[in-house]
Design goal:
This protein is an alpha/beta fold. It has one domain: Spore Coat Polysaccharide Biosynthesis Protein SpsA, Chain A (Alpha-Beta Complex). The chain contains eight helices and 16 strands.
């Protein structure tokens, strides 16, 4: 199964970092957050990625084109025009970076990468700015077992997020401003059947609006509850918190060896 990562937004709430680079390349520790996200998926056996680029997307292309260079010691033989890599820890990933437009909405970005997906085959999708210790393989098994069109990782919200009401294992509605109780929010880490792309009209479609609402109305959006660690990186404060966790050796999302 392929993994689609939405990575094209401007990241304006993290402008201290994103004025010079796209948010997925903002580093936690010494590696970009998109590397952390991919490492989570690769740990569970999913190592083919489609990155929906947009804002400063050429930097994402350059990062992956030179990933071995970034993470290896090198000897540059100028006379022979050769580069020798030492102690390379390059991951076994296949990464397609697709320019999905500068101002395209989340749903539109997803629709634009349709040619890179396999018809009739489900795929994984998440945002390029959030990490979690979610068991992706277990979520995929859950998705296959219930037989619905979509599965959303449902996480316990910090108070500033809108939430989802869940009945049984299905999302029954969304709440813009939750009050109290056991409501959960969209944590990304979706498992989607290929035909959900038919719910997306054009570049202006917001995935979290009409497509998700349509899936809810049809009873086709399942909730995979995740009670472990989940954190977005929307602000400088959140980036600093994630960085501190990583540097302390206590990053809960580091599920790989």
């Amino acid at each position: 199964m392929k993994v689609v990562i939405l990575a094209g937004g401007r990241g304006s709430r993290l402008s201290e970092e994103t004025s010079v680079r796209p948010k997925p390349l903002v580093e936690i520790g010494d590696k970009p957050i998109i590397w952390h996200i991919m490492s989570i998926y690769a740990h569970h056996g999913f190592n083919e990625f489609i990155v929906c680029a947009g804002y400063k997307g050429y930097q994402i292309k350059e990062y992956f084109a030179n990933l071995v260079l970034h993470h290896s010691d090198v000897t540059v033989d100028l006379g022979r025009n050769l580069v020798h890599y030492h102690q390379s820890d390059k991951p076994n990933w296949r990464v397609s970076i697709v320019d999905t437009g500068l101002d395209t909405m989340t749903g539109g970005r997803l629709k634009r990468v349709r040619p890179y997906l396999t018809p009739g085959e489900p795929f994984l999708m998440t945002y390029g700015d959030g990490v979690a210790d979610v068991d992706v393989a277990q979520e995929v098994a859950f998705h296959k077992a219930h037989g619905l069109k979509a599965t959303m990782c449902a996480v316990a919200p910090p108070g500033r997020f809108g939430s989802a009401n869940i009945e049984g294992n299905k999302v029954s509605s969304f709440v813009e401003k939750p009050t109290a109780g056991n409501q959960r929010i969209n944590g990304g880490f979706f498992v989607l059947e290929h035909d959900v792309l038919d719910l997306i009209d054009n570049d202006d479609t917001v995935w979290e609006a009409e497509p998700l609402e349509s899936l809810v109305a049809e009873g086709q959006l399942a909730a995979f509850p995740h009670d472990g660690f989940w954190r977005p990186m929307d602000t400088l404060r959140e980036r600093t918190q994630l960085d501190e966790l990583w540097n302390s050796g206590r990053a809960p999302w580091k599920v790989w060896a």
